[in-house]
Amino acid sequence: MWSVPDEATRAAQEYLDTLDDAAFGAATQVKPKTLSPSDPAARFTGANGDRAFFAYSTNYLVDQDNAIIVDVEATAPIRQTEVGVVQDMIVRTRDRFNLHPDKLVADTAYGSAKMLGWLVEEEGIEPYIPVIDKSQRKDHVLARRLCL
């Protein structure tokens, strides 16, 4: 997607290559409305409720029993990206350190059916994550009801 002239430095080429990684540009088909002129991998976000700014999200995998960060990765502040990176961190931590969690604690952003199914069915991890509930939608889209 991004092109670089032949005389670009190795560092510039590596940076531009990351813009198409799943952690940044390839995470979503939605094109950003605004690009940072100095850092195209950063995303314009108003997630903190204040004025919007260019930023990254930092994602941590923490061993809560021992209060140790076992993996960390920066991503664009996009929910799909953050969920995908958590999956990558769990697999990477298992492969690198032979550590595999019995349970995962996270916020609602990780409460999609796809993520919860992956945790339980493929990884055998007990999720302590609120389920994303779209049953009370107000945008005139037919809401799905939760069945328990």
Would you give an account of this structure?
The chain is an alpha+beta fold. It has a domain at 10-101. It contains three helices and six strands. The strands form three sheets. The chain has a two-stranded antiparallel sheet. A two-stranded antiparallel sheet has the order 3-4. A two-stranded parallel ribbon has the order 5-6. Strand 1 (43-45) and strand 2 form a beta hairpin. The longest helix has 19 residues, at 79-97.
Which class best fits the helix and strand makeup?
Answer: alpha+beta
Shape: globular
N-to-C CA distance: 44 Å
Q: What portion of the residues fall into strands of 2 or more residues?
A: 15-25%
Q: Output mean pLDDT.
A: 79
* Helix amount: 25-40%
Q: Got a strand count?
A: 6
Give the H and E element order. Answer: HEEEEHEHE
- DSSP helical segment count: 3
Q: Outline the low-pLDDT stretches.
A: none
Largest sheet: 2 strands, antiparallel
Strand order of the largest sheet: 1-2
Radius of gyration using CA atoms only: 18 Å
Defining key terms:
alpha+beta; globular; 3 helices; 148 residues
Summarize the structure.
The protein is an alpha+beta fold. It has helices at 10-18, 79-97, 113-122, and strands at 43-45, 53-55, 57-63, 68-75, 103-105, 126-128.
